[in-house]
Amino acid sequence: MKHLWGVDLGGTKIEGIVIDRETDEILARERVPTEADQGYEHILSQISHLIDILKKKTGLSPSAIGFSTPGTLDPGLQTMKNCNTTAINGKNLKKDLEALFRIRIELANDANCFALAEATEGAAKDMDANVVFGVILGTGVGGGVVVNGKVLNGKHGIAGEWGHNTFDPEGEPCYCGKRGCNETVFAGPALEKYYSRLSGNKLPLKEIYRRHLDQSDPYATQTVHFLTDSFAKAVSYIVNVLDPDVIVFGGGVSHIEELYTDGPEKLKAHIFNNKKVETRFLKPKLGDSAGVFGAIELVRN
User: Fold this and answer.
1) Does residue 37 sit in the same domain as residue 140?
2) Is residue 293 a part of any domain in this protein?
3) pTM for the whole thing?
């Protein structure tokens, strides 16, 4: 394939990109609204519309397309699950896209595509990293694992989904049906709730962090310390099991600088390695483009 095609299927927008395989030059990049409230068939129609736009703009046709999806294709059932774009759940998205375009289709969830993009084209590109763990810290908590440049999917298609590991069995109920998942502890909304319980005030995380930096609000500082303490403990299980060379962060919470400074320091107390941490904690380089570039990497080889 001389040209590579990737699509980031999001809850509000669908973004597509075509690049030159040899030079990585972007030949076309377009977006259309997902309009997921109009149902699954309409989402497929919007994807088809996007591909038609890219075809017209480039004069090319794809021989394969990689898709970053808001959920996971169950390897056994071959249907989608865990999608926050709920119209896709239970649907055989891969089969339907193959029927629609009559070409090879590759799918991976958005966290895996983020990790793959940052491992191969982003923050960890030139670091000779065999194992990269991509951490999503935003409205939710998720993750993806890349080993030697390939996404690790797992038997159930849930490799890297550490957001729903139980952190506190007596903690807040999670939408997944359990209590005290990592997502209920240090996702953005969870941190805002934590601050509100301490202070009696409701503030967005950005303002809480600003107050911490200004040293004007002890509750804000306590919230940031709570984040780094709980994150270090939660990620220690990943480090003990996978021992990644690199952890790359994404999502709104990842802008908190203490994750990169205090995080590794606090991790020392939890891992089985003589109080020493050599894993690199890295900021992302691709930003909102990680999904679509990760989709590209699914079909590069």
Assistant:
1) no
2) yes
3) 0.92
